[in-house]
Amino acid sequence: MASPTKRHKAKRPSLENAFEGLEVTPSLSNPGTSPTIHLGKSLRKMMKSTLRLGHGTVSRSVRGIETKFTITQDEFYDYKIAHEDFDPDLVFPEMVKLGNQLQDILQARLDPEQEAAFENHILECLVHMVYGSNMIEHAGAGLEITWKLCMRIFQGEQVPEDIGKRDEEYMRIKEERMRDKLSTSTAAVLRSRREIVQHAKAAAYMITELCLHDRDLSEEIILETHRILTYKVDAESAPWTQYSGIYRCVDVSAGLHTFTYPVLVPSKMQQMIYELQSDLQQAAKSGVLDPIMLAAKYTHIFVNIHPFLDGNGRMCRLILNSMLLKFGSFIVCLGEYGPDRKAYNEIASAASQLEDTYDGREEEEKPVMHKELASLILSHAKNSLGKLIKAIMK
Description:
The chain is mainly α. It has 12 helices and 7 strands. The strands form 3 sheets. Strands 1-2-7 form a 3-stranded mixed β-sheet, with helices on one face.
């Protein structure tokens, strides 16, 4: 969901040996530091390990316990996406079929060229994920600069926190902003660059924690991810030191929709994590899981709590993709193009309006608020899997 117009009123053991040949790195202690991990290589090895148990099955831990899930379609998808007809009953089986095909490819012995193609495509998807998410928020810069910066970070290279006015990156960002009739001040140019760099570092951190270390989503991971995302990026109404990695203490709203009152944010976040763990435990008991619906649900819940002063939209999409990767080996790149941004924002806004409409009702009286978002994600996930397979098999 795009950023609203604000109105102010115990350590777990490392799982570094869980996946054969997997490269993992400790959590970042400095949000300005790049991770030293090649995400493409590590995610390829993770996918090979977690998808090896049989067609349509993924293996992940829930609260430290190894669990097998069969990917199964939930019944609550929408049959429209932004007023366009959509049939999840056709698309979901096609997605599972592509997942099975990917599983077969991963279990075969890939030659070095195929491994490189797989890893490069994963990195490209992550770049487009960051770019699209930034575009939704009118943040960052163009795809070329985003590509160069993100690729270096996702390959484990260090990038400098700041650059000079004569640096090629600086000049390219300034040219883009001039073309788009945006401010070309030094502060604006450096902010655009930092919005890319910190977004990529935040993505690398959350993906490493949830997917490579196979940890459960927690408030601590969410707070640290936000701290990295917003490091040295001031909000409109506060310097970064006053809101980065900190739950908000002011009211915020988007249009007529007012998000959770600040005094309730900590308890709502605790409740969200508790509910997620309950859903996963129930899935472990039943042996079936729809990763699309699960990720859509908690993306919706998070963004409607809106726990931070700024950065909630980008954070919800980092949670979305980290959960999709963890439980389904999908990456979805939302918001790259105007029509997709429009559809995403309309869907998110309509879901928030539903929250207002049914506020105070009993849970059993409420509709599934995130079903249209789930259909949008499903459409993207199917296309993403198809492109990945095509890239490997060229």
